[in-house]
Amino acid sequence: MNTHDGHPSRRWASRHDVAFYLVLAYAISWSTWAFVLLNPESSPLVPFGPGLAAILVAFMAGGRRELSGLLRQLLRWRVKARWYGIALGVPLAIPAAALGAAVLAGANVPRWEPSDLLQVAGTLLVTMVIVGLFEELGWRGFLLPRLQRDRDALPAAVLVGLAWLPWHLPELVSDPGQRPLAQFAIYLLAQSVLLAWLYNSTQASLPIVIIFHAAFNTFTKFFMAELDGSASEVAWWTLTGLNALLALAVVRFAGARSLARTDAYAVTQPSEPR
Description:
Layout: H1 8-15, H2 17-29, H3 49-72, H4 81-104, H5 114-147, H6 153-167, H7 169-174, H8 181-201, H9 206-224, H10 229-254
Helix pairs in contact: 1-3, 2-3, 3-5, 4-9, 4-10, 5-6, 5-9, 6-8, 8-9, 8-10
């Protein structure tokens, strides 16, 4: 079925899928921001906005066929074991190095109990659903392939990052001390490149992307939770710098055109589920 045939609303949604998606993702995610004024303890951001927007726009633009192509990316877990190692190992190593830099700068060495390991594992699983699944179904599963229709992978990844960064605005405003803006902006753009590399290199495996995203959030919070002042600043600049260096290495290694080592990256395009 050609997504440009049929009802006028479907033709409109297909022609404006990227803009329509971004408006919906922001509108859904920011819908509770005003309530923070009434309850400062509430969350200013609805995390499932990007995923829900992706589902709605995919169905409106291409019907069940396009929606099925979007959701099937969640089942692409059969990839080489090294990608799982990267998805868990890199997010563990970089925040640990950031903590190490903070300790060298004078921060106290944290003391952990065995029970903390169970807490980290539980946090990782929850984050995979609440953050990883609902965000990555939209940012990488829906938006990235569409931006790659008419441009190389690197500029497409940067554009996703530029859309992803201001999406966090409610959290940045509500809790400005949690993420320093300059470091967070560089970190997020680098992460967008790394996530695009994982996505393209694994033929659109959303499980790998979800694990990487959730693991970075989880381990960064775990290793840097007790840091403040200059120690926190050192850790954040280390975290940011290592992510940026890794992103540059990925571009050098995989190439800006595809962000994949082989030209056969052929990421699933809209209306063409594999």
